[in-house]
Every structure is written in structure tokens, then in C-alpha cells.
Amino acid sequence: IKYNGYVSVISNRFKKKFRWNNYYINNVNINKKKFSLFLDELISYIQKKKKLTIKTKSSVLIHVDELRFSKNKKSDQNILMKVLSLTNKNENIILKDHPKNKLNLIQNKDFRKELLIKLKKRRQRVFIIQNKFLRDLPAELIIKLFRVKKIISSFSTTPFLSKIINDKINTYVLFKYSIDNIKDFEDNLFRLKNVEKRFRTTFKDINFI
Questions:
Q1: Quick one: how far is CA 193 from the chain centroid?
Q2: pLDDT band at 56 (very low <50, low <70, confident <90, very high)
Q3: Sheet of strand 207-208, all strands in order from the earlier edge strand to the far edge
Q4: Residue 199 in 3-state DSSP?
Q5: What integer pLDDT is reported at residue 137 of this predicted model?
Q6: What average pLDDT does the structure give for the chain?
Q7: 121: exposed, middle or buried (C-beta count within 10 Å: 0-12, 13-18, 19+)?
Q8: Among 75, 83, 130, 166, which is most buried by a count of CB atoms within 10 Å?
């Protein structure tokens, strides 16, 4: 499919034409302030409609959907310890799987299973989003709903969009480990490595680890 334009908040940072399905298309910018206000209105509606009461404070979203262990155990343990080092014991940890995945998949994936074990050993407060309605919401909405102050994420659009919407969020992206250990990236590995520099220069306010 050849698209004429790409409508997204991310065009607040990427001003030039965007490559989509091997075609360069025009960016159609969405005002980030207006989009943030829209999300606030949507959250207000959701809380009233679903009677949700969210009381979490100092929340950290660990968003590592699809991340899997490599064949290098030392590298795996190093990245796990790095993730743990970025959290404090008084912070609430939130884990959410992608809506396309089945319930309880978070606990079954090797990377997150090991991460959960280590978090529990630290007696960290961990909240796994299992409510079907909440699980089906996009991560960007969950971040606002739970007043997330910090994001630790594999390589996806979530940390970048969230940083644009709220530049006060502390954001960490496991870039290299992600492109090496997410199955969906295997066919696009060469292209992803080539765009790494562009992401780093465009999002200097994000920590790439």
C-alpha cells in the first residue's frame, strides 16, 4: 500500500518525510498539547464510565513487550540488573502486555518471568495489568492514567510518543538489546541499525541503554 501521509504525534520531532512501506510519505503533524488534552478528556470519561480509582504514585512502567533472552546469559543478566538499577524500592512497578497477546503472557515470557522473580526478591510493589479493559488500552493512555513518572522500555513507539506528550517523564530505551532480541525486528535489523543515530540525535532527552 502506498500512503500519501502519516498522521502522528511523532512528527513533532521528525519533521522530514517519513519512510513507510518503502515509500517516503509526508508527515501530518498532530499538536502535542491538544493531543494531551484529548487524552485527559478520554481518561476522565473512562474513569467515570468504568468507575476506576487509580491511586498509584511514583509509578514506573516497564514496557518490554516481545523482548526475549539472547543466547548470551551474561548479556541477559547484565540488562536485567541494569533495568533493576533504574528503579527504586519505593516505586510501584507496572507491567502491561500488548493487547494482541493473551492474558498472563507477561508471566510466561522468559525475560519478564526472570524480571518478576528479581523484583519479588526485592519486595518491590508490582502491578500487572490483567483487567481486560485496561489491558486493551494503548500503553500511552495507561501511562497517563497511572501517572507514570518513569518508562523503561524496549524499542517501540511508546517511549518516544510518551516523551513528546510529556517531556518530564524519565525515559530509558533498551535499544541495542531490543533490536538483537525481538523476533519481529529480525527482517528489519539492518534498517533499524541505520536509523539508530537518527533516533539518538532526535531524542537527546531519552536515555539509550
A1: 19
A2: low
A3: 125-128, 92-95, 59-63, 148-154, 170-174, 207-208
A4: helix
A5: 85
A6: 80
A7: exposed
A8: 83
